[in-house]
Protein 1
Amino acid sequence: MYLSATLSVNAMYKDYVNRFIGNDKPVSGSMYRSIFCNDFNLGFGSPRSDTCGRCETLLDDALNHHKQSANEAYKRMKIEREQAKEGGCIFMTYDMEKTMPLPKLSVGEAFYLCQIWMYNVGVHVVRQKREGSYFQIWTENEGKRGVNEVCSSLLAFFTIEDISSNKLVVWSDSCAGQNKNFATICFWQYALLSGCFNTIEHKFPEPGHTYLDSDRDFGKVEAAVKKRENIYSVNEYQTIMTNCIVNKTKVTVTWMGDKMADISDVARLLGLKKMTRDVDGNKVQLRDKV
């Protein structure tokens, strides 16, 4: 288990000492630290995330093939990004940022209380002579973190930005619950039928090596949030996100509270059926083989 990254043993000890009133005496700082380290299995900050477990377990040829696939994906992304700048297509990445606490407080008591979480789906778009970062945010009482919320965020992005092109190239990670599933395929079918695009290509980098343009945007958001000791509302988060990228890139933040759609109903409305086997009778392994 992990405590907040902004907390420390020294800070906890000071809070502990301040609670003693009258003749009661606290234990020494060294005793407090000894008890904390020996009797509790707690750390500070989050554990390393987005690390590649396959790089740690694969050997020789399998490891080389894994790394080669990752490099080929990054090269392909770079080529398609340049094609988009020249007007050949629209290049887009999207991902979900790590959860952010609301409110974010520096008060000691807040570290031990349950806080509501705010979610953010980031979309980064590159097109001819333009580039933009888009954040779709909501709180956990307004929605979860599944495919319905992710596709609703993409739908809100397409509605607000009103983009269209002959070809859309989309990159995302391989999260089966959010991106690589039948509901997402149905959503792309809806996007095609809406007439915005003639072709949509959804691509997935090698698992464990999914550093996208959206992740760079998240890094700037998290750096700006870290500088603020206290954040009390969604509006404050929205202001921070709008101002965190200070270059020619456009930043748009959309609150998703009243924009959630029922993506699960798209398949029924379009008459689409999830096929578990292909025309040769082989099992369709969307998550593991695509």
Protein 2
Amino acid sequence: MYSSVAVTALTADELETLLGTSRRNNLRDDITGVLVHIVDLDGTRGAFVQVLEGDEAAVEATYARIEKDDLHSDLQVLTRGTAPGRDFADWSMRLEQLTRSDLGGAAALRELAAMERLVARYADSPAAG
């Protein structure tokens, strides 16, 4: 799981393009996960929290691509390791969108326990709407 700050606000079309690319790559590499896009209230910037699941080498290669992506700044790995199973096995990449007020403040992006609770809401549940 990592968090990052988007260097600019994304339009709905840009976010859909990002999601489509992620899903294609993840299907190819057998990666699953969830991407939480957090939009600032003023709409000028956003943030991401993402969980990637799969073979360690594939996940690390995916994260290396993300590190090189100009969209992200201030990347921080929140947790890394193995798990007995996948929490998002049915999702090549699930997208959820929130506002920063849904998080209770910007500091929560760096709080591992808060981010674990956030993504746990979406594990093994159908996507909204």
Protein 3
Amino acid sequence: MATNSSSSDSARSLRTLALGIVRKVLPPFFPPARYLDQPLATWPPLLGLAHDIKLPSRTKAQSAIGAANINILLSTIDRTAQVPGDVAECGVFRGASLVPMAVHLRQVAPAKHLFGFDSFEGYDDSILIDVGMGGPPEANKRVGGFKGTSCAVVRDKLRLFGANNATVIPGNFRESLPQCAGRSFSSVHLDCGIYVSYKECLEFFYPRLNPGGVILINDYGKPRWPGCTKAVDEFLQEKAEKLQIIEIDGHAKFYLCKI
């Protein structure tokens, strides 16, 4: 068992090292400014690899519910383009989905603004509630999980892609979300993993979501993140909306559409 774990750690370290080298070498060959007026579906996969962003051309088909598919995020923006209100993502991490969302939003709904929320400090003690719920092992389900990022990294990436239609607001959700209390929303992507975060985000965005607006829920139904399923089920108990599912290329995500 120890040997297998050591081999896995070594392989992961080698992949990280190789990826770091690639991201130092490739960026000059794929300057974002060359592509900004083109649909994201036409952007070369190596551009996404070079700059650590998700692109439709880098998305592989799969057969089960998995990581957030950028095609689902972009299709949700398309679907809600005519719904009044701004767009938000909670759980930005390194901006791999926030950046392409900002570029696409500027192309299809330039009057809208995108807000990204993240503590950029990893999970706090509230993760212990989810740890107590059990589920399969997950390396980041711990205090400090998903800490490998910073607000500066995401803001720099947004500037590189000319995404002046996006604002990143750092801090715990209970502190950062109220800064947008006066806004309404048409589309929200929740990718925050744990019970308390999903509960806080749903309570904030639902009353500010315009009719026809969509809240996309990244972790619902995932055994590794039972806190999400618990928070969503509790929240929807007395709501008229029911969860629906969207599937593209085998990637499936649950969402609610405001009535």
